[in-house]
Amino acid sequence: MARTQAKPFHSFWLFFPAAALWAAVVVPLSILAVLSGSAWPPGLLGAGHGHELVFGFALALIAGYTLGPQPWKVLAPLFLLWLVARLCWTLAPASLASQLLSPAFALLLARYAVPRFQAAKKWRNRIAGPLILVLCLLPVVFWIATDLRNAPMLPVPDTRRVLITAILGLLLLMAFMGGRIIAPAVAGTMDKHGIRLEARVQPRIEGALLLILPAAMALSLMPSSDPVTGILLVISSLLIMIRTMRWKLWHCMNRPDLLVLAVGYLWLAIGAGITGIFLLQATDPLPALHVITIGALGTLSTSVMLRLAWQRARRTFPPAWQVLGIAIAMSVAVLARLQAGTTPFAHPSLLWLSALCWSSAYGLVAIQLITLFRDSQKRRK
Fold first, then answer.
1. Cα–Cα distance for residue pair 67/102, rounded to 1 Å
2. Type and span of the H or E element at 348
3. Do 58 and 170 meet the contact criterion of CB atoms below 8 Å apart?
């Protein structure tokens, strides 16, 4: 008798709750490690904090969003590798296992995610694959930069530069995929009201962003190119702002989920603009980069996670109170972190306020995702 094949499992049901829980835990632990004086957990000190939010949290989001339905023989090893990599890095970041596991997860993710984008014919539609590949290769670069940091004669960027490049890569990925989510959703909503949206994907603006931001990523690895990188980011900020305004979102007041996605997209513009200005002024861009990672990534990722889960489990949009609450929490979090400036630990109350809003939002999203998953399983029975 032939065996019945197990149905593929939607990747986001596994990676989204895990990513949300990890985001909720990492930020307060990283602040506690410094302010308590215990230096524990060691993997969240210094650049380790950024490492886990970019190569741990953000790559888990990418896995959940891009892998689609997969058999457990693919998902189980990938998820276990991600989980073990997170634990090893947090507890023993200097160990060989920690140095190898994060790049291993990223490369395995690229193995399954990148080919899914190669069928498109237009170059703009195929950009997601190479971009995800670059983001998955950056943990390898980070590892090399860590091992060779005491070899000044070699042209290897420091770990801080690698993280900045990764954040700009996330900026590009969010600008591309965010536009592909928001534009058709806005157009469909407006069509129901008898209003035609002319400016949808806006290929010229999208194409310009797909040329400018990769150049900014490459230049960000070189300290001498900071002014040029700054100019490119300011131009990108203006393009993202124009693109958002042309969607005429004021016609979608009955769709708070779309409005909050647009807020996250506007945080991209604000983050790119402020980062560009900081670089032009030769100022430490760290506070401005948090506008991208907290404001844009926080708002867009939580909105997309809830949107996918509600559509899959209940075939409806997330309730207004959830998406609006998240937008407010992320706005408070990013403004508090921005106000803390370049010496954040000198302002612990602002850091804790930012962490409280961030962690509360992701913790509640994780609970909601688990609840919706259970509902979806009950519907299948």
1. 18
2. helix 348-380
3. yes
Mean pLDDT of 180-187: 95
Length of the chain: 381
- Which amino acid is located at 94 in the chain? A
Please tell me the predicted confidence (pLDDT) of residue 125: 79
The two three-digit tokens of residue 249, written as one number: 């979102």
Hey, what CATH topology would domain 9-369 get?
Answer: Cytochrome C Oxidase; Chain A (1.20.210)
Give the 3-state secondary structure of residue 70.
Answer: strand
Chain mean position to CA 314 = 25
- Specify the amino acid at residue 121: K
| DSSP state at residue 356 | H
Instruction: Please tell me the distance from the alpha carbon of residue 259 to that of residue 134, in angstroms, as a whole number.
Output: 30
DSSP letter at 52 equals: I
Q: What is the DSSP letter of 69?
A: E
pLDDT band at 277 (very low <50, low <70, confident <90, very high): very high
pTM across the whole model = 0.96
pLDDT score at 124: 80
Can you give the residue ranges of every domain in the chain?
9-369
| pLDDT (0 to 100) of residue 151 | 56
CA–CA gap between residue 267 and residue 171 (Å, rounded): 10
Contact 292, 268 (CB under 8 A): yes
Distances (CA, A) of 113 to 36, 217, 286: 40, 21, 30
Average pLDDT over residues 287-315: 97
What's the pLDDT at 154? 61
- Residue showing tokens 């993202």: 240
| pLDDT score of 2 | 45
Query: Which DSSP letter does residue 37 get?
Result: S
Q: Tokens standing for 260? A: 């909050």
What lies within 8 Å, CB to CB, of 151 at 6+ separation is: none
At residue 188, does pLDDT exceed 70?
A: yes
